[in-house]
Amino acid sequence: MNNSTIFMGFHYQFSPFGTGTINEKGAMQPQIILLKEGTEASQGRSQIISNINACQAIVDCVRTTLGPRGMDKLMVEAQGKATISNDGATIMKLLDVVHPAAKTLVDIAKSQDAEVGDGTTSVVILAGEFLKQMKPFVEEGVHSQIIIRGVRKATQLAVQFINEIAVKPKKDDDVELRQLLEKCAATAMGSKLINQQKDFFSKMVVDAVMMLDELLPLNMIGIKKIPGGALEDTLLVAGVAFKKTFSYAGFEMQPKQYTDPKIALLNIELELKAERDNAEVRLENVEEYQKVVDAEWTILYDKLEKLHLSGAKVVLSKLPIGDVATQYFADRDMFCAGRVPDEDLRRTMKACGGSILTTVADLGDSVLGTCQHFEERQIGGERFNIFTGCPQAKTCTIIIRGGAEQFMEETERSLHDAIMIVRRAKKNDAVVAGGGAIEMELSKHLRDVSRTIAGKEQMLISAIARALEVIPRQLCDNAGFDSTNILNKLRQKHAQGNRWMGVDILNEDVADNMEKCVWEPSLVKINALSAASEATCLILSVDETIKNPKSGEGPAPQGRPGARRPF
Ligand code: ADP
Ligand code: MG
């Protein structure tokens, strides 16, 4: 046990938690738990309620960002770095939550982001609403375990139902699959800053994902940002692209285009070392000094010659390539780039084949990469090295153009969401209608099921059914619609069997969102529901928090030993 946490007291002096006893044999029994001064502990029903309240506060922070009409948040960190975002996970990460129970919500947002990439705001709002609906039960004294069982049952029913009703468009039809993917991407981006350009970007994102191979590895889509230009100037390169690196004189004489070049990827410095810096050499005369200098040049020339003889046309190195080498390559119609970022060099290796070499001793074709076309191209104010037609792995690079830095960062995050969704949808192609349609349908289903159950679960399941309505309600509130009115309409439509009726953001009405192509992969919804329900159960099952002061810290100034106060 950490000595700073709780220690077992063997003395039986005063303690708010009881006293020690001496048994017949006179030996002390370690019965007393004495908390270090400043330790806070609170427990019981009031603890659960206070945790629920803390979670509500967190939910209120992200509530307004949900949906196509949601607002963005501008967050300023301690160092003054400002971030503008609409992404639940990003906001939650930056919020720096200290409340122990409310941190759970941060975690589910993060896990939703990692697992499916979208639905991060929804998951937090859902969890908050589940807790809110469960609060009256806790207050009335229903046991946590019963509530938890009810929540689990409701979630299980809901997930089952999503799987039943999700629509699976035909996968073998390429045109239809593409349409499906583009619609999912457009829905994911509809709520972001770039929603005006969502048609442009959804095509690009689908193109990008289509370029990947079966496993759809995310790190094979590179995203680069160059300030300047319009958002529509953003381009997708079918291959690897990275910014031109620092170069020396002579670089401009090198050719900037090749077809089918061999590519050498190095982790070698091609530069003359200033020998006087490195060692002390005692020399008698000028000839000897010349020999040392010559030796240095010979080593470098030897490397350069080997590279030249190998037939490589493009030489990339993680380490610097100096002026002598640059000139040497220029004279032999070769291209070189030094100080290539590690990530880019690796992606080039994966795409073009070959290996990253630390010696030039054995330069065969097997260690050299190749691609169909290489060129250096001017994009905005920057020059890019672009490799296309890569034989090995399929890869692509999105070069984002735009004004402010924060804007491009948010664009990158939005594209990331959309890419994740398209990947998900491609792997697992069932979709449901968004805009609150699926939540309303689930709500109706749960309400119907609850009526067939006798016992406390009936109330709990119908409470979860009510909680699900928070998504359409919030979508309406954020758009400035009369949410009560629209929810009444939705309830009526769903009762009549119009399964995919949801909020129509454009016309302040309800609409069939399946027809309107507001589609979301069913996996996003399943994951969000399960994560929200898990968080709810977790928070409901905690009835005591013990917080110890940091070790080394003196007793908290206001702290009485074992003071009980809610957080
Ligand atoms: P999240 O981080 O949870 O994805 P968003 O801000 O992206 O949060 O909002 C997603 C919600 O917005 C989903 O419930 C989705 O169905 C809804 N939505 C997206 N596009 C539309 C649209 N065009 N009309 C109505 N609802 C939409
Ligand atoms: Mg989203």
From TrEMBL:
Family matches, as InterPro entries: Chap_CCT_eta (IPR012720), Chaperone_TCP-1 (IPR017998), Chaperonin_TCP-1_CS (IPR002194), Cpn60/GroEL/TCP-1 (IPR002423), GroEL-like_apical_dom_sf (IPR027409), GROEL-like_equatorial_sf (IPR027413), TCP-1-like_intermed_sf (IPR027410), TCP-1_chaperonin (IPR053374)
Top-rank taxon, per record: Eukaryota
One GO CC term on file: chaperonin-containing T-complex
Region (Disordered) residue spans: 548-567
Compartments, record wording: Cytoplasm
Catalytic activity: ATP + H2O = ADP + phosphate + H(+)
One Pfam family this sequence matches: Cpn60_TCP1
Biased composition (Low complexity): 552-561
GO molecular function: ATP binding; ATP hydrolysis activity; ATP-dependent protein folding chaperone; unfolded protein binding
Key words, A-Z: ATP-binding, Chaperone, Cytoplasm, Hydrolase, Nucleotide-binding
PROSITE patterns membership: TCP1_1, TCP1_2, TCP1_3
Role, per record: Molecular chaperone; assists the folding of proteins upon ATP hydrolysis. Known to play a role, in vitro, in the folding of actin and tubulin.
Family: Belongs to the TCP-1 chaperonin family.
The protein's assembly and partners: Heterooligomeric complex of about 850 to 900 kDa that forms two stacked rings, 12 to 16 nm in diameter. Heterooligomeric complex that forms two stacked rings.
Name of the featured protein: T-complex protein 1 subunit eta
Protein source organism: Daphnia barbata
Gene assigned in the entry: EOG090X03U0
